[in-house]
Amino acid sequence: MRRLSVRRSSVTDLAFGAGGLGLGLALGVLLRGLVGGVDRRRLKSLVGEVTGQYPTGSGMPREAGNQITAALAGDELLRDLDFDVVTVRIGQVELHGWVPSRRLSARAMRLAREAAPGTEVINRLKVRGEDEPPVRDESEERQPA
Q1: How much is the pTM?
Q2: Which residue of 43, 64, 120, 127 has the fewest C-beta atoms within 10 A of its own C-beta?
Q3: How confident is the model at residue 58 (pLDDT cuts 50, 70, 90)?
Q4: Could you tell me which residues come within 8 angstroms of residue 75 by beta carbon, excluding any fewer than 6 positions away?
Q5: For the stretch 27-39, what's the b/e string if a residue is b when 16 or more beta carbons lie within 10 angstroms of its beta carbon?
């Protein structure tokens, strides 16, 4: 007995493939227009709406910086020093400035971490006398070799 086979032309395969690709692209563009751009802020907002859990104040960069600045200004040993709290991203800040000793650097870092729990505080403090570049003697430079 003979078997019957149905042959399709490669032109119809190509047409169906191109049609499927075009339909997929069109639906992707349409869906993108309806949903809009997806970014971290929108995803966090969506998760907050679904779970009911929103980020606390310390998770927000400006609030964490304000809390750290207030804690450092309220300390009697650190209030006269100039500190800069630089936000790197949500949940991460850098503490910049000059301190007279390593002990005060450690104290400032401890206070900063306690002031904004859940925020990573990166130590960028410099100690006077230790982290300053060496001073070159100008009289050595003037003498010919």
Answers
A1: 0.53
A2: 43
A3: very low
A4: 107, 108, 111
A5: eeeeeeeeeeeee
